[in-house]
């Protein structure tokens, strides 16, 4: 469950995901982790073989991403 105090709206989600040409064996770096909306969609496309590395300067974003992406623990590095 997402942190109710953390607010983030993914912008241009479909366009971003469509432009990445994702597949199960891809490894992706997300340098703007934010609310993890894009990262979650990426992981759904690259799972179970791909890896995602996520970065963000905001510690609240990292904590929120840990919750949002908990089902992909073996496939993420935050």
Describe it for me?
The protein has 78 residues and is an alpha/beta fold. It has one domain (21-77). The chain is 35% helix and 13% strand. The protein has helices spanning 13-19, 37-46, 59-68, and strands at residues 27-30, 51-54, 76-77. It has a three-stranded parallel sheet, with helices on one face. Helix 2 links the parallel strand 1 and strand 2.
Give the helix/strand layout.
Blueprint: H1 13-19, E1 27-30, H2 37-46, E2 51-54, H3 59-68, E3 76-77
Parallel strand pairs: 1-2, 2-3
What would the keywords be for this entry?
78 residues; 3-stranded parallel sheet; 13% strand
Short synopsis of the structure:
The protein has 78 residues and is α/β, with parallel strands linked by helices. It is 35% helix and 13% strand.
Q: How would you spell out the order of helices and strands?
A: HEHEHE
Q: Uncertain regions: pLDDT < 50 for 5+ in a row?
A: none
Mean pLDDT: 91
What structural class do the secondary elements suggest?
A: alpha/beta
Rounded to the nearest angstrom, the distance between the terminal CA atoms is: 18 Å
The neighbouring-strand order within the major sheet is 1-2-3
Largest sheet: 3 strands, parallel
Helix content: 25-40%
The helix count comes to 3
* Record field, number of beta strands: 3
* Multimeric organization: single chain
Radius of gyration: 12 Å
Approximately what portion of the residues adopt beta-strand conformation? 5-15%
Counting structural domains, the number is 1
């Amino acid at each position: 469950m997402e942190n109710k105090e953390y607010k983030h709206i993914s912008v241009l989600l479909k366009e971003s995901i469509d432009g990445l040409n994702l597949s199960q064996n891809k490894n992706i770096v997300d340098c703007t982790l934010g609310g993890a909306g894009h990262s979650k969609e990426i992981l759904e496309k690259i799972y179970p073989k791909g890896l995602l590395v996520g970065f963000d300067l905001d510690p609240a974003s990292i904590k929120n991403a840990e919750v949002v992406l908990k089902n992909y623990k073996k496939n993420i590095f935050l």
